[in-house]
Amino acid sequence: MKLAGTSRCLNQEILEYCILHLISKGEINSSDLAEQLTEAQLIEAEGSIYPLLHRLKSEAWLSTRVEQSEGNPSKKYYLLTEAGKKSLGNYAHNWKKLTSTVQTHRKKK
């Protein structure tokens, strides 16, 4: 799903929902997260998710764990907090309402 042509606000909301959903499956590092989002054509470059991850962490929706490894750069793993789980539930509820409304209006045409 290419998000080009949609509003910046809608892009942000969809991306937040997708990020929270992917992290809800279990801890994930930013590179693996970016790879999945790139494959889904939700982002074009890995670097574009870091400001969003930082904001979600500052909102207390995510926590992090850093894994040090000898001779390699450390990896930061993201986990969903209880507040993040609640936000994910809200996104899921709102997404269901939105898609239902769109489908209803499309059938009326």
Helix and strand topology:
Layout lengths: L7 H17 L3 E2 H10 L10 H9 L3 E8 L2 E9 L1 H27 L1
Antiparallel strand pairs: 1-3, 2-3
Helix pairs in contact: 1-4
Short summary:
The protein contains 4 helices and 3 strands, in the order αβααββα.
What does this 3D model show about the protein?
With 109 residues, the protein is α+β, with helices and mostly antiparallel strands. It has helices spanning 8-24, 30-39, 50-58, 82-108; strands at residues 28-29, 62-69, 72-80. The chain has a three-stranded antiparallel beta sheet. Strand 2 (62-69) and strand 3 (72-80) form a beta hairpin. Helix 1 crosses helix 4 (82-108). It is elongated. The model is unreliable at 1-5 (pLDDT under 50).
CATH homologous superfamily (4th level) name: Winged helix-like DNA-binding domain superfamily/Winged helix DNA-binding domain
Number of helices: 4
CATH topology (level 3) name: Arc Repressor Mutant, subunit A
Whole-angstrom Rg? 16 Å
CATH class: Mainly Alpha
The coarse silhouette is elongated
- The count of β-strands is 3
What order do the strands of the largest sheet run in, or round the barrel if closed?
1-3-2
Main pleated sheet: 3 strands, antiparallel
* SSE run: HEHHEEH
How many structural domains are formed by the residues?
A: 1
